[in-house]
Every structure is written in C-alpha cells, then in structure tokens.
Amino acid sequence: MQLTPKNLWMQARDYIAIVFGLFLYSFGLTAFILPEKIVMGGMAGLGSLLYYATGIPVAFTVYGINILLLLIAFKSVGRTFVIRTIFGASVLSFLIGVMQPLFEHPIVQAQPFMNVIIGAMLCGIGVGMVFIHNGSTGGTDIIAAMVSKKRNITIGRTMLYCDMIIISSSYLLFHSIEKIVFGLVALVIVSYICDMVINSNRRSVQFMIISKKYEEIATAINTDAQRGCTVLDATGWYTKQNIKILMVLARRVDSITIFRIIKSIDPDALISQGNVNSVYGNGFDQIK
Asked: If you count DSSP H runs as helices and E runs as strands, how many of each does the chain have, helices first?
C-alpha cells in the first residue's frame, strides 16, 4: 500500500479506534469483572486466575504470556500478525495495569450478575472495535492460529475450547459452580456483542422476486427505494415456462420499503429474502 495522505489517515484512524476499543475492554474487565472474581476466557481470564491465586497483576501476566506465545508461533502466524498483536497486547496490558488499582470494588455494589453483564458488554464492544480495524488482542488468537496451521480445526472452535478450559479452571480456586456459570455467561455475551459490532453495519439483505409484473416492480424499486435491480432469466420447471427473476441487494433498513413496493404492485409475487453479511461496491461499503 502506497504511503499517501489518505492511507496514512486510514492507518492512524485504525490505531486510534483500536486503542479506544482496548480502553473499553480494559474498563469492562477491571471495573466490573475482576472485582467480582469472575474468570472470563482468553489471556485476561488466565491472568485473572493467576492474580486470584498469587496476586500477580493481570497486566504482567497478559503481556508475558502473549510475548511467549508470539515467540513460539512466529513462524506459524507471520510477521504482520505478530506486529499487530504486539501493539494490541502492549496497549491492553498498559491500560489494565493503570486501571486495575483504581477499582478495588465493583462499580455496581452487591449485584454480581449485573456487573458481569455490563462488563461483558463493554468487553464485547471493545473487542469488536479492535477486530473491525484489523487489530488483535493476542491470547487465544495466537493458540488458535497455531493449531489451525497444524490441524483441521477452525480458529473459532479452538478459541472456544481454550476459553472453556480457562473458565472451568476457576473451580480449582473458588470451588464455586456459580462463578463458572457467570464466566460462561460473560463468554457468551462477549462473543455475541463482538459479532454484532463486527457485522451490524455491514449486514444487508438479498431479495429474489418472481412476478409477471417484474418491470413495474424493478422501476419502482429504482425510483422509490433508490436501489438497483438485476433481471435474471430462468425457467419454472413445474410449468416449463420462461420467467424473469429480480435480484435486489439492499440495506436491511430498506426491507420494509421494498416489501411495500412489491405488495402494492403484485400481492401474489413470490419473494425470498436472505441475510447477506457484507456487500461491497457501488452504493454499499467500500473494500478496505
């Protein structure tokens, strides 16, 4: 990529967003999760276990384990991943180290489940922002990347296995099923919120419309919904007749408008709607 002012600004914007995402993650962890002695997944969860057992600050553990894993995995994951992860792990460790002494008690008193929910939501938003802007927090990402190179196991499944082992290990310290349940709840919330942050802005819908009045429908969608249509030739195998199919890609918020247009012109039209995670090009997102 050429070092133009536009590209430099995009790089700077990415790093600013990554730092802000890591700030949200650190705040959620130190202000809500750690004071309740709940163990989440990832290196933060492993660091929490060591902190509860030995008193070693989470920041030191997170950074040390990440660097160790990167040294082991350097040949497997590549230089770009290593550089990106070192930046993310350094900023995350610094923020956790600064924030942890500030929150000896959870912000919401006597409400452990509420603290778990709020903390996990903040962590999920933070991780989602980091991933959107091509960042990495390291941890189980590194283990998953190494395993996927050697075994036919997906990265997501490997991360899930690692997180489950870390959360379940908290029983050895606290002998509490309740804390394991809280950790699993936090893991689910973080994963769900992270996925929502990553995909919500890019989710679109795809319509396939079969109607004898396809020309009127296409024109109305062009003019009223401001969306393009593609006319496909097809054959109805039951009737053995040639038909036309309209394919429409649109934002999810445009779905109601398109349905109303079709209903007003041909209430008997055959319509299928499917979710599309990403659409790039004219009128949609730009490839970054």
From this structure: 11, 4
Give the residue among 133, 167, 168 at the shortest CA–CA distance from 24: 133
Classify residue 86 by burial, with Cβ atoms within 10 Å: 0-12, 13-18, 19+: middle
Give tens-digit pLDDT for 152-196.
Answer: 665 556 777 888 888 998 898 888 899 999 999 998 898 888 878
Nearest to 243 by CA among 206, 271, 213, 217: 213
Query: Which residues, other chains included, contact 46 with Cβ-Cβ below 8 Å and sequence gap of 6+?
Result: 61, 65, 139, 166
Buried residues in 264-284 as b, exposed as e (16+ CB within 10 A) = ebbeebebeeeeeeebeeeee
- Residue 183: CB atoms within 10 A of its CB come to 27
pLDDT tens figures, 29-48: 999 999 998 988 888 888 88
Burial 215-240 (b: 16+ CB within 10 A, else e): eebbebbeeebebebeeeeeeeeeee
* pLDDT tens figures, 106-157: 888 889 999 999 999 999 899 888 877 777 777 776 776 666 566 666 555 6
pTM above 0.70, yes or no: yes
> Which tokens go with 241?
């007749």
Amino acid at 22: L
